[in-house]
Structures are given as C-alpha cells and as structure tokens.
Amino acid sequence: MNDLKNLERELRAGRISRREFMKATSALGLAAAAGGAAGISAALSPAHAMPKRGGRFVFGMGHGSTTDSRDPGTFENDFTIGSSFTLYNFLTEIGTDGQLIGELAESWDSKDGKRWVFELRKGVEFHNGKSLSARDVVDSINHHLGEDSASAAKPLLTAITGIRADGNAVVIDIEQANADFPFIVSDYHIPIMPSKNGKPDYSQSIGTGPYMEVSYEPGVRRNFKRNPNYWKAGRAHFDEIQLITIADVSARTSALTTGEIHSMDRVEPKTARLLKRNQDIEIIELEGTAHYTIPMIVTQSPFDNNDVRLALKYALNREAMLQTVLKGYGYLGNDHPIGRGQRYYNGDLPQRAYDPERAKFHLKKAGYSSLTVPLKAADAAFAGAVDAAVLYKEDAAKVGITINIERVPSDGYWSNVWNTDNCQWCYCYWSGRPVEDQMFSTAYADPAVAEWNDAEWNHAEFNKLLTAARSELNETKRREMYYEMQRIVSDEGGTVVPVFNSYLNANSKKVAHEAQMASNWDKDGQRWAERWWFA
Q1: Residue 8: what pLDDT?
Q2: Which of 90, 276, 410, 447 is the most buried (most CB within 10 A)?
Q3: Is residue 46 classed exposed, middle or buried when 0-12, 13-18 and 19+ CB atoms within 10 A define those classes?
Q4: What span, in angstroms and rounded, lies between the C-alpha atoms of 321 and 392?
Q5: DSSP class of residue 129?
C-alpha cells in the first residue's frame, strides 16, 4: 500500500506519466492497479478525469502594477507571484496534499540540521537551452544575500554561512540547525535562474519552468507559451497563457461571465453567491494561511505606545468585518499571522473581540482622552478594504478614536504606499507561509534584516525565541516557543490582524483541475499554470 501511495504522489507531482503509473501499479498486482487508478481519478475534478493538452488560457488578476520588476526578490503581488511559478522552478515544492516534495532538488539530507545537501535532477534545461547546474543554484541563492540586497527573501536566508557546488549537488551551511530549511527554499522569491558571469540572469525571465515568456507589459499583461522541453511529465497542459491585470473586481467578474477570461482571482465575497448560480462558473473556496492586516509603524507616534496599539485592536469589530466584508468566507484573526490549520497554531490564546471599555482603558492608560489617526486604504490590499476601513472608523468612533480614512490609488499601492514612509498605518494582505518560522522571519523579525517587517516592530524576546525555535528538536519545547511568539505578537505587536480570509476564486467550467487543490498559496498553491487544463 505504501508503494501505491508513493506512486500516486509521484504522478501528482508530475515526476511520472499516467502511462508509467499504470505500468508500475500493474506490477503491484491487479487489485492495486485498480485501486490506484480509482484513487487518481477521484483526485481529479469530477467531470474531467483525464488531463489533455491545448488551448489558450486567459487569467484575469486583481493585481499587477506598472512598477513591477523582473527581479524575483521584489515580487510582492499575485501577478508577480503567479508569474514566478509559471516561469521558474524551485529546489522544493509543496504538493496538493501540503507535503514537501522535491522539484529541482531530487533529494535533500542533513545529519545535524545545519549542513544541507541538495542533490539536483539531471537533464533539466533552461528556456534558452542551457543545462541546469549546481552553479546556477548557488548564484540564484546568493542573489538574495548581498549586503546591498533588498530582497524579501533575505531574512529567510541570512542564516546561511556558506553555499557551494559539489558536482551535481549543492551544499548549504546555516548558522543554526533549522529543520524547516527545505520548506524555505520553496519560497516564490527564490527561483533558480541561469548564471551569467557569476550572477543570476533575470533580465529575460528565463527559467526551467512550465512556460516561457513571450511578452510583458508591467501592470497590463504578460504572455507565455508552453516550454516544449519541460522536464515534468503530465504537467503544463495549455499551449499558451495570458495574464491580464484587471484591478477592478466588477470588471474582472464581468470579463469572466462574458467569456473574455477563463479564470479570476479574489472574487468579491458579496458576489460569490450570485456567481454560484451561474452553471458555467465554478467557485473555488480554500481555507489556508491568507490573512488581512493593518500594520502601523511603531517607531512613530502615537503607534510607539503599546497601549495605543491595544486600544486600536480592541476598537475593531472583527466579527462584523468577517460577516460584512468577507460574507463569512474566512475566520477571525487574533492579531498574529499563524493560521488555525498550521502545526503550531496557539488555540489557547483568548480570542480578541470588540471591547469598547477595554479600548477606552488602554487609551486612557496611554494618556489620551481621544485620539485621531490617519488610515490609508485601497482595494489593491484586498477587495473591500475601503469598506472595511469605513466599518473600523464607525466602531472606533464609539471609544473616542477618530480614524481619518485616506483612499489612495490601487496602482502602485505596493511600491508607493505599503511598507514605505507614506504608510504610517494602512491596509495589507498576506498569503501567509507554510511554516511558522517562514512567516515570522519574513514579516516580524528584526527589521534590520526583515525587509518586509511593515510595522518596523522589533522585540528582543521575540527575536530570541525565533532563533531558538529553529534548532529546537524537542517537539514540546518547540511548540511552547511558537505559542509564546504568537502571544507576544498578539499583545505587543504593531499589526492588527482582523481576519483570515478564504482563498476565493472563480473558473469557467471549461477549466479542469485536480479535486484536491493546494492551499499553501492562493490559486492551487500558485501552480495553476502547470496543474490545470481545458476539459
């Protein structure tokens, strides 16, 4: 039975073809072959059990900015993230079942959690015909580690003390043992690119991935064609793909219903029920680690006072936001970024609720009888962000807090507003990360190393625990550390986390996919380009 399960995983990962799967299961015996075939058929969307090639797939996305760059270290919105998984491969991959599998790394091993050896696949080519080498991997990772690097992956990789090629393997030494390191190198910022003069060449978006770039207009559209030499069997079914930025959710919905596009992301919850009535459209809802946030820069007054931060957290009616803005498609957040389905989620923390009296208490403790604060919002952050700001304003007014909403343009929001000096307090969203260390290291670690610490929050005890938890092998102690980190962020952090949102997308029923879809990122783990096909 274990052999059969391993074969099923190999098929889903694209490492063997369906024909190879059937041949191998036949060798296990007739009953196993029949059971295996049934299992795979059940894993495919019910009406379309057999993937087939062909067609031009058009995806309308709510993200994309004229300021988007080809540098993967800068990828920050769903358009660039989706492009990353369309063009590139990574050392590791998270499968539809949430388990880590090898991608460009055929295997990996570590005896002490500090030295990791990744054995690379042979016979993999870049889009330009260059064969993948260990040198490409070394230079791709080093891209994020330079002193002047502003890559969002830098805080994930700063523990690296050495990296070198060893034949067809890559040897990575890290400062302290980290059992989660193979998960980290699956991050969308860390694709493997061809090396040129000792540096990765990202200027032409050349990768080893399922599709090749044909043209690119940042903030407008991106066109791809299938990589004819793609190394994964049973993947990359479309002939062509086009990504289009359609920032307005109403326009995006209209494009789907009229057939101009085959798929849309970020369905507006209030229209999801209407779309469900359309027999030509499939609504895809997945609960994962995605969440909405409202970071405040804690190095600036009045947000440098934790009682002000607590007052603002208690002045938010998150239940009303869940029901009004998300229409119930999600669950309540507790001012930390770890989702309830994650391994070390702290379910013992009391759920923070709207509490005007406690908000007033903390406001008074901070020395204020009333408070006025600006809050920037744009629906680029998430569909309904402006509506959410209005709700927040109304609730906070009841405790003496005046929120002045500043509505800003969606285009350029992620480069001109979020995580800049222009955003003392603003709306944001996070797709979350598959492991707790990755999420905390990206957005809550010391801002001197965590480029995306958008609250500029720095907490000595938290940083100490974050470092210690990586190398702690005792499961009970490690859980206690992550529980405490969630408590610290919730009670002392500079970010309001009101809700965790379900991923909510819509497809034409002309599009088929496996019944089990990955939820580590939006849109089937952002691997829709290689996993989906036309019925």
Answers
A1: 55
A2: 90
A3: exposed
A4: 8
A5: S
Please report which helix (H) or strand (E) contains residue 255, including its range: helix 249-257
Tokens of 97: 């079942």
Residue 341 confidence (pLDDT): 87
pLDDT at 36: 35
308-317 as b/e, with b when 16 or more CB fall inside 10 Å?
bbbbbbbbbb
- The separation between CA 333 and the C-alpha centre of its own chain, rounded to angstroms, equals 17
* Contact present, 94 and 518 (Cβ < 8 Å): yes
From 336, 448, 429, 440, select the one nearest 378 (Cα to Cα). Answer: 429
Q: Which segments of the chain have a pLDDT < 70?
A: 1-49
- Strand order across the beta sheet in which 291-295 lies: 330-332, 495-501, 291-295, 428-430
Residue 80 CA to residue 202 CA, distance in Å, equals 13
Sheet holding 169-174, edge to edge: 105-109, 115-120, 169-174, 160-166
Nearest residue to 311 (alpha-carbon basis) of 279, 357, 277 = 357
Its sign, for the CA torsion 9, 131, 528, 324, is: positive
Specify the DSSP element, H or E, that contains 331.
Answer: strand 330-332
DSSP, collapsed to helix, strand or coil, labels residue 221 as strand
Sorted by sequence, the CB contacts under 8 Å of residue 354 that are 6+ apart come out as: 314, 315, 316, 317, 318, 319, 320, 395
State the first-to-last Cα distance of the chain, in angstroms, to the nearest integer.
Answer: 31
- H or E segment to which residue 15 belongs: none
Please tell me the predicted confidence (pLDDT) of residue 270: 87
Question: With contact defined as beta carbons under 8 Å apart, do 496 and 430 qualify?
Answer: no
**Cβ–Cβ under 8 Å, residues 388 and 426:** no
Amino acid letter, residue 206: I
The residue type of 121 is R
State the Cα torsion 363-368-370-371 to the nearest 10°.
-80
Distance CA 382, CA 266 (A): 8
The answer to pTM > 0.70 is: yes
Query: What residues form DSSP beta bridges with 496?
Result: 294
Q: CA quadruple 294, 299, 303, 305: dihedral positive or negative? A: positive
Cα–Cα distance, 1 to 94 (Å, whole number): 22
Q: Are 216 and 205 in contact (CB under 8 A)?
A: yes
Residue whose C-alpha is closest to residue 194's, from 106, 243, 124, 107: 124
| Residue 180, number of CB atoms within 10 A of its CB | 18
How many CA atoms, within 13 angstroms, populate the side-chain half-sphere of residue 145? 16
CA distances (Å), 390 to each of 101, 342, 356, in order? Answer: 44, 31, 17
Nearest C-alpha neighbor of 184 from the set 305, 92, 260: 92
Distance CA 364, CA 160 (A): 46
